[in-house]
Amino acid sequence: MLDPNISRYIWTHTKRQQLWVLMIVALSMIPYFLSLNLPKQIVNGPIQGDGFADPAAVQTFMQIAFDLPILGTVTLFDGIQLDRLNTLFALSGVFLLLVIVNGLFKYYINTYKGRLGERLLRRIRFTLVDHILRFPPATFKRLKGAEISSMVKDEVEPLGGFTGDAFVAPALLGGQAIMALVFIFVQSIPLGLITAALVGVQAFIIPRMRRRLLVLGRERQLTARELAGRVSEIVDGIHTIHSYDTSNFERADISSRLGQIYKIRFDIYQWKFLVKFLNNFLASVTPFLFYSIGGYLALQGQLDIGQLVAVIGAYKDLPGPLKELIDWDQNRQDVQIKYNLVIGQFAVDGLLEPEIQAVSAERAEGKMSGPLAAVNLGVTDDTGAVGLDRVNFTLMPGETVAIIGNAGSGADILAEALARIVWPTQGQINAGSADLHSLPESISGRSITYAGTDAYFFFGTVRDNLLYGLKHAPITDRVIEGAALTQRQWERREAVWAGNPEFDIHSDWIDFEHQGAADQAALMPSVYAALDAVALTRDMFDLALRSHVNLAEHGDLAAKTVEMRRVLRDALTKADLNRLIEPFEPGTYNTEATVIENLLFGNARTPELMAGAIINNPYFLSVLKQLGLADTLFSMGTEIARNAIELFSDLPPDHPFFQQLTFMKSDDIPVYAMLLKKMDKNSSNITDSDRTMMIRLSFDYIEPRHRFGLLSSELMAQIVAFRTAFNEGLPANLKDAIEFYDPEQYMVSGTLLDNMLCGRISQKYRDGVERIYAVAGGVLRELGIYDTLLSIGLDFHIGAGGKRLTSVQRQKLALARALIRRSDYYLFNRPLSALDTRTQEQVLIAALKYLRKEGRTPAVAWVISNAKFAQLFDRVAVFERGRLVEDGSHAELLQKNGIFKELMSA
Amino acid sequence: MLLNDEVKMLKQVPLFAGVSPAKLKLLAFTSERVSYRAGEVLFHQGDAGDAAFVLLAGRADVIVDGPTGPIKVADLEENAIVGEIAILCDVARTATIKAATPVEALRISKDNFFKLMSDFPEMTIEVVRVLANRLSQTTVELSEARSRVAALSKR
Asked: Using the beta-carbon criterion (under 8 Å), do B29 and A707 form an inter-chain contact?
């Protein structure tokens, strides 16, 4: 647990360094005092001529001699004789040297303190996160993630800055202040008393006045923390906010919080400057007393004037350190409060012992003896609601058990309790003869695999998340040398200094051998099999096909993809589906593609040639006009406009049919209607922009889809001719602006699917994509890029919390992540609730089969959402209202005429 | 085949005979043109009904799963509409439709069909009229069949 006293905490962890820096500070005093005396020597000696009355006079420089009590005068260095000018330069040189030495001391001390602070900050932050990892599960019901992270990130930040000064500053400043005070006392006791009294008042009043500042500071911290919590709530709940139109309620809430924070901060300023004013006043009142009382005493003859001047001189050195000392104390209290506010949140009862989570590279197999048994297990939540009531349930090694129960029956709580996610309030869970909760997580967390309804995914790729459940301990160290090794050694050293663990995040954290594979590549086939089992393979393919592939990472993929075009076409021909894809061929019009795609015959790489902007490109327009296409496309656009208006003018603007109208928006209808009227009245007053509008309409036309009958064979030939003309005359600034369709080349600007098809899927055949998929799988295997494609799919970034996947995909992924772990016990808690019943059954069967491959016989307890699946298991346990009400084989329970039968018929 | 030809074909379908050509054109435009090769299946018995089909070219067989296996119960010719019952009353497909020759069809999705009906009541009335005709015809056939059964059982 963290020490509640910040100073003690700092001392415990940095005492050796603190003592060292104190010693260095003391040492730095010597050159500092020497440098104070030197200016006087320079001015009095060589400049004013003290001791240099005679131009030939010389003085001894750098004599090092000590008067020692017994030995008499010991001379270490006789010194050298220098004349006036040389003495000036020599002394100035010494001054410069001292300045440099002082600067170096300061530099060293400051960096040392800074490093000390940063290390301590690292230690605190780590300790806090370590605590989070060890919180008992129930704690998280009332924690806001953003508040906790703002504590770890921001609130402990000032502690680092304070660490370096925690002991050095009071020692240094206190010493200086006491020295000045003692000096005043030596000169005059009454003035000393006055000074001491005023210092006492200052030291008493100011910190008290500042207490309010501390209270305000505390409020500021809490309100800021709540603000962070609210902001993250807005982010998490954004869809609820949109759908319930509560955005302005949120605005009001944030505004009121910001107002509160503003008020607190403004209060802080007001007090801060009031205290400052008072402090300055008290500091200046002392000289006033010196002048008046000291002057009076001097006039009375009780104090000589020299002493008074010395006292005033000495006092000059007092307010500075004193003020800094008071500031330091203020800072200390402030940091102490912040620290207490933070650790108060982290002082949680029932923290897991560190041993429970000790890192261990040893395999867990066989270490947890079976069976997994709930004995008199009771779970009550923090409101007192009973979730499980004295349940006795045993999961024998190797058996499969279906757990059934409606919501609130306790079935899911049992699964969570067996997985250590929920802690028992009564009774206990035994793993063999041991209490499950006394086992280290390195045994229970590897022997038991759990997958629930809403699994969490970490920010990263599908692959990262799939393999996440295997990363228990650094297994093999990286083999590194040179700069990387130096860097690693530094990392390790620093980690130890700051009390962090020295595990290497870059080592192999997966025990591949235990997974039955030599390395990650060898592991992948079994991962792919798990994806097959949960029916996620197709999704991975889709992700891969829709992605723009980094060719550098996948060596021969480009060549294979180009090859695939031909192989796929052959395969389709064999399946009599050759008309499914209409390929892009340089000399042929592709009727399944739009007019603009046929014109450009490539993908635009720069925005000026992209759809929407290209019509304004002068070069493009000039070639259109040159080939007479501008007029043809204009009349084609006009026909499209007439057709569209005839079809759609009666429909309200928000009608769903407008989705079919790919080339127009509902707002465009009246605009085009006006334009057509204008043209019909007098065709001579058509402007260039009118023409552009019409030509643009023609661009998205696809004959088989829109069926207006506007594509004659002459027009198609003209468009094909345009390609060549456009390509050949391409000006230098547009040279790389288009990547042309080339049946023999991979197109970097296209997705993998675009590249495999190098054509368009015909609209005519229903489920064309499905049919191609059916053929493509075999083709991919034949070409040996099936795995490459899956691997590209696995590189898909799933976003925060896996939100870029659908809920179905997330559940499937969570199940696959659980399946690839090699455990003795598998607990599944309605892991497929988002899937339809048919797929659920199919995945369930495949998952059970996957777990039993290679002769493995792990135990499986599956909380099923449909009683029909129960027959797939050795045993069935039925829960109702927190109790285990029926337990036996499927056949037994069917005969019993109990709740199970009721559930079956429901 | 172009939109205008499709409209002419739709006009021949009794269900749409009374609907104005402009509406039919919209119906055709919002529907999908699909091709099937001989032997391919438009939909299976038991599938959820999500669309009706109008045969523009070719012929198709109506096949029902009998106790002894699939039985062909009817032929579909050009201009026939099929599958409209399933989309109107949300029941599963009552038969399998298989292309006997290469088939060109217009696939009218359930959503679009309903949308058109609600937007253009005259079309709804037309549809109701056709269905009512069919019902009365079926009723007549049923009562004839019943009287025949009654006559048989008396014997």
From this structure: yes
